[in-house]
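Researcher: Re-running this chain for the archive, since the previous output was lost when a drive failed. Same request as before.
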Amino acid sequence: MTGKYIVGIIGSYRKDGYIDSTVNELLSAARDRGAETDRIFLLDQHIEFCTNCRTCMQEPGPERGKCILRDDMDSILKKIGGADAIVIGAPVNCGDVNALTRKFFERCVGYAAYWPWGTKIPKMRKRKRTKKAVLVSSSAAPGWYSRIFTPAMGSLKKMAKLLGAKPVGTLFLGFVNQEEVRLSDKIRHKARCLGRELAA
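Model: Regenerated structure tokens:
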């Protein structure tokens, strides 16, 4: 038993779709190695849009600032804060990660910086990236094309950094334009390898 706690954040609109299925494969492999896992399907959460009030950026220090909005974000971030590793999965939509994931991403801004009103530039919160992360994305276009010509993976890397995690692997699924979801043996194998690595 590893005793590791791993949280999967699923930003897809489709349950049992490519992103969901790949994250499940990762978490299943981690559980086989004795890890405890949790899945957060963003579509099921009550997450308000960031209003850019900057309340969460007024207090100094390494810890995330507190948001004034009362929804599910605080409980989600507490789970992530207690995790040893995270998996973040989001599809490409209109050239970047989809709006559901972006909404979540913007609400993580309290981790980023101390920027009180009246100051010209922010001071970045210095936080050690102690967690491991695996990043998963998908596109109807070829995987290599979307990886190179969209900022999706870069967005996921920024999100991982905000959440105190350092990526140890990425998965980019291309040609996900079939109604029936079928993960290739190659993707399934890589997902399981990365899941075992998170649990190690």
